[in-house]
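so my prof wants the structure for this chain in the tokens format not the other one, which i didnt know existed until like an hour ago. anyway here's the sequence
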Amino acid sequence: MTAAEADAPILRIETGMHTAMINRGSLSANGKLLLTASDDKTARLWSLPDLTLIRTLRPPIGPDDIGRLYAAALSPDGLWAAVGGFTGPKGSPDYVYIFSTADGSLVRTLDGLPDVASHLMFSPLGTHLAAGLGGKAGIRVWRSGKWGEAATDAEYGDTVYGLVFAQDGRLATVSDDGNVRLYDPDLHLLVKRKTEGGKEPFSLAFSPDGSNLAIGFADTAKVELRAASDLSLRGFTDDTDADRDLHSVAWSPDGRGLMASGRYSNANNESYLRVWNWREGKTGTFVDYQTSIASTTMGILPHPNIGTVIVSQDPQVLILDSQFNRTKQRLPGTLDFRDISLRLSTDGSRIGFGVYHSPKYWVFDAPQRQLTAADAPDLAPPITSAEGMETAKWKNRPSPTLNGQVLALDAGEDSRAIALNGNRALLGSDWSLRLFDREAKPLWPTEISPGAVSWAVNISGDGRLAVSALGDGTIRWYRMSDGTHLLSLFPHADGERWVAWTPSGYYAASVGGEDLIGWHVNRGQGQAADFFPASRFRDRFYRPDVVSLILHTLDEDKALARAEAGNPAPRGAVPESASPAGISALLPPVVAIAPLGTDNILETRQGVLSYRIRAAADAPPTHLRITSNGVWQGDFPVAGEADGSATGSIPLAFPTGTEARLEVVAHNRHGVSAPASATVTLPNDDPAANLRKRDLYILAVGIGPRYPEAVGGPLAFPPKDAMDFVDAMMTQQNHLYGKITPRAIPDGQASRQAVLDGLSWLQRSVTTNDVGMVFLAGHGTSDSRGRFYFLTPESDPSNLEDTAVSGEEIRNRLAETKGLRFMFLDACRAGAITEGKRVSPADITSFINQMVYSEAGTVLFAASRPMQSSLESKDWNNGAFTKALVEGLRGKAGGDDPDIRIGGLFDWVSRQVEILTKGRQTPTVAIPHTISNLVIAVKP
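here's what i got, hopefully its the right format
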């Protein structure tokens, strides 16, 4: 790749799980760590048995296939993670990367490989690392630690897909040249034999006692058994599924079971794990266990304690217990668009889509920026055949035709979907989107993301837009005139979160959705890459106005210009850059922390946090912010070196609890780092019983009768709502809380300055051991750029920046407030439900995302969803949200549990608001990931 390509930030999807097929998995010897490598160009380190993501390992990547990882190996002690794959441009040497699992740093690059590493494995004592290579490059073996080459064998006729060490250091390999080879502990070739169970041996495994070798094949369902001493043939398992394969093989840890799996098998495309009894050198009967994995199994990893770990192409990770029952599963965050019908509105701005083998259906409205579930969307399916435009052989075929003429594809490229509009045919394939005229003449091709097959396509009825649903879980819009990419949508598999973005990275997102994308920044071949979630550039790139306009303008620059003309940036804002390259000059710091104690286990309630910060020389770090279980512990200044780096340590005390969830962020003039986090285990001496209850401070603002028509008109109940909330919380004094201090701002005194003064009072009053709550009820609005404002009676819609309370001002004050923080926001009021009053609802998406972001760390209850009004009525004598909230706090939430927790309160509020408003209003809760399901009140 060129220097410019290597340095340019790359926008990537990030769900906390792989987004493309997992190619390999590896366990540490003690079974506490799992490493996975994927076509998505990342490797991920997981803790077992809980399958919690510890960290993502990011080697340098590039365009096209550069960075796809085919191989992964953990050292037995779990200290090193080796990964390899397609690491450089075609024709250049490839690499194996050695990462430290402790902090994710890249500690060594093993370079000069003549082809890709297709498999990696450490020896049982961790003294050697072996690599199976692609093409005819054979194998390489290095000595661990200093990483000098220990052995090489280039006498291979094809790719080495499988290699394995025996406990005594012997090495066995299989290759697509059809041979199995055995090396002695000194890595000298002992014997080479032709396999007989199939022509494409893929994997192999030594039995635990080292006496037998099992071989799995990619072209048959046989497993071949050989003596591990001389590779003499001992036999085969029954070939009962000639049309399948069992290419992944493994032995149970006790040696009494032989396991194999491969491609999916049944009508539901579910793969199975086949297990044979092993007695006296022979396989007995087998049992098939359904895994519910709807793709090919890529690895079977026997675990020393919990059973079996399986990795698959889905991508998916599955844990089976000793009886082969599923106990834990990590599902992909991507949706599967195979065999779906992609439906469009006439102008292409609304799309409807389903999921492979599922009745679920969603509609996304790009201008309104809303994703909703739908039973039968009134949208047009693709036209696949019409008079004068006859199509054939386009479904998963290499030579589709239009009017009898072959539509030209590249070698090895299959057609997947087709759509017609007038005299044009849009074809989706394995790696491109192509437009043809009625004579099958190519009009344009557009390459799509590597590995992201175009599973479904459609053309808008007006002929302006082409749309495709891809294998990476995105749906993308293209300009029909020339195939220019305009907009991408990633709907998360949970059906709630989503993010949409333009090629330059301007984005809109749902609540909790903005960090589903981020920027990968390479730091050179010998360094691990950085990754910055999109929220780190929210001020510059969160542009829902641009996203709403781009499908109308069909041009990103025009959409940006129109958005700027309609709603310019705030005064003093930095001029925007419409190029991703501009991000390189705006990078926040990167922070890493060392474990506290041994594996974050402390014997006392004192610990020392050691940190390392990296930042640009012209933007050195200024300070660290530390939170523990969501509570701000303080800001700590740091002194940077000339190169922008900083190291140091900070003493910490943990007065309560048996577990502390630490989160550390670093600041510089560009912004805030992604958090470094750790869960610290504390002594089980329960000192909390001897501590005072937390004090509670409440700021309550309810504005209603004084609103002029210019900002939505009068509201009847917000002042009462505010006082009802205060009264409900006051019943908790001397129960859950110690002293409760409320500050209510009456409707007649609720100016912009009064609200800001109240927030400053809360900031000054709340200590680390206290709780702060804010209740805001009234009118709210947002501008086209998604900036939220809480309105007061003197607010001027033409000058919101100076006359309303901005979401940024609220966020900044709460970010400086210590203790636990809660906000209850009922600021999208639509007036009396019986009188039919309505005002334009506010888009509070960005505000909610800002509030739960680690800097603010606030639990936020919102009365309604973004772009949805909240309602009040004389029948309730309250707003619907406050009525349900107060009832819940007074004891109706939480069922039989005497403690009213965040989750139980929200469940109650959601059900009651839905009943009161007949489904017209849906509350929202957003909880920082550092905060658990806390008790917010106790029943009287």
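also thought this was worth mentioning. Residues 902-917 form the longest helix (16 residues).
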